[in-house]
Amino acid sequence: MFGYVRPFKPEMKVCEYELYEAVYCGVCRAVRRRYGAGAAAALSYDLAFLALMGIGVRGGAAGMVKKRCPLHPLTGRNCACGTEGGDDAAEKSLDYAADCHVILSFHKLTDDLADGGLLKKLRAAVLLPAVYMMYYRKAKKRRRGIAAAVSRAMKRQRAAEKSGSRSVDRLSEPTASAMRAIFSELGDYDPDGRELLGQLGYMLGRYIYICDALDDLADDARHGDANPFLPRGKNVKVDSELRGRAERKARIAAELTLGEMAEVYRSVPLNSMSAVTDNIIYLGLRQRFEETADRIKKER
Prior knowledge:
By secondary structure, the protein is mainly alpha-helical. The protein has helices spanning 14-35, 46-57, 89-115, 118-142, 144-162, 168-184, 191-215, 217-223, 240-265, 274-298, and strands spanning 63-69, 72-81. Helix 3 runs antiparallel to helix 4 (118-142). The longest helix is centred in the middle third of the chain and has 27 residues, at 89-115.
């Protein structure tokens, strides 16, 4: 994921934000326990939402314990946890989010290598062999279905971008499908639950793509990369008029997507996690889009 799935902190109770932070720390700890400290680099807060959803739909609760970590060696942090080695809902959800982090990080590097700027290409070329050998192979073995689904989605993403399409629907579909595969697994063996969570993940993936495309407007124009908010052709000048059109088009797409997501979300039972996930779905996602749109405005 890409950093667009966060809560709106001003509207959270202290205990709710502490729970959210503890779940994030729990995912980080799960990554380090399962893959090593290096794999936790650039861990996105978006994975905390995946873990929260998993704990909620499984009817679990996240216990919190004080743990020391490399970033807070003196004070430590509250960390969500389950029963070590058990089939606890929290433990299961944190481990799943950790595995998905590794799979998504690997494919983000492959995407940077294919379509990024020079610095991103160089970084990806240096990191990819180590990430594949040390982390991705292990995650792929643990989550073969998810690894295969994300891999297929990334291939479709590159094909859609090479087609020259400027359709939001076509260009966002692979990311949306990858998120559908990831979120449907939270439903375990319940077909109805898997379908519902898959729909939620699909809309979330579409929202993430819209925000990311708007955020990357200038970079994509500079490098000639596909972007649904840019006109066809090379050497596109990103002036204030184009930014305004892109922002309006992205806003319409984001509002429709968030509306459909909210409709699906209302049917998902999230038990003890609902206060935090409600904040993210109804407030946090909209706030993150507004922040992205504001950045576009300031660049005019």
